[in-house]
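Why do we bother with a discrete structure alphabet at all? Because it lets us treat a fold like text: something you can write down, compare, and reason about line by line. To make this less abstract, here is a complete entry for O-fucosyltransferase family protein. Read it the way you would read a sentence in a foreign language you are learning: slowly, and without expecting to understand everything at once.
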Amino acid sequence: MATSTGSTGRSRVYLTWSLRYGLTNQLYSHVNGLALALLLGVDGAILPPAVCRATFNTTLEHLADEALWSPQPLGTLLDVRKMQAHWRKRHNIDLQEATKFTMTSEGTKYPRPLLTSARPAGELHDCTVLPINVPEFSTITNAAAAARQQLEAARAKDAAAGCFILRTESLFRGFFSNSTGGLQATASRGVFYAPRVVELADRVAERIGGRFNAMHLRFEPDMGLNPQELLPVMVGHMRELGYNASILLYAASGLLSYNDTSSLQTYTKVLHNDGVCSKVVVKEDYLAANEVEGLHSEQKAMVDLLVLAHADKFVGTKRSAFSYMARELRQLDGHSPSTSILHPPRYGGYWQDGVMEISGKTE
């Protein structure tokens, strides 16, 4: 899809997408959106803002409450300038932040930011907006074919149009990974995280002061899982990976965001007594209140996500996109797939392997 200044003289094309709630749901949408941008060869991608929740202290049913969610600058989660430089140099794609949008749940179950401006930066006139439908669990080739078909029809209808915006809903769980030819991995390597969050995660790893294993202790009320059933399963996986009483265990958990110290202490005691760690620690053990002051919910979750990439080994759950993303980031950072285990979906999940594997690595 060449630009109007390119060899074919064709109109400029941009791609944009909305988001679903939750940190890793947002990250998966960005990775899949950028992968689709690569395949389509668009001139630019318009990135939606970050979305955060007012509190973690909710049930699963309350997550659809529009008042719970608010937009935040994308730079609170991603290093936008670094990404812009990377994508311009490596892929000749201009990344822009959406500056005009509205938070709405109209047409969907959950609130999300929806682009309201049809004029990307640098354009003198509004572009023609073309909604495209990308069902969950698609192939990227089918999504690209649908986009191209709609674009060609629009060009035939208005040959004088200077630019088009292809707009889709959230691309979380968008594509089967074996359909992307490695484009998700390429896109993932072009997603860079906000410097402040990276610094805090590195600080936690440094203050731990040595090797450690990790787990995703995802037993907060909004997940609706049964700890009495799942914790023994996770302990079994830890033993399978060689966790033992000589190495510290880092738990990525939002329990303290609920002020639920009692549950955290209960799980910590079980894990220690089962001999899979010398001690259980969380990020709050290493970061003072003033160090995390002003961070919104998804930034705090990202600190946990990035700390997991430092761990020797990792156990998570297929019920959670966060666990999948942690595994994939570890593999992108060079960890072998054999160092991570996610317990199977029959314990409360419906995720499908082959959709969340953006690193391009399996074992």
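What the structure line is telling us, in plain words: The chain has a mean pLDDT of 88. The chain has nine helices and 14 strands.
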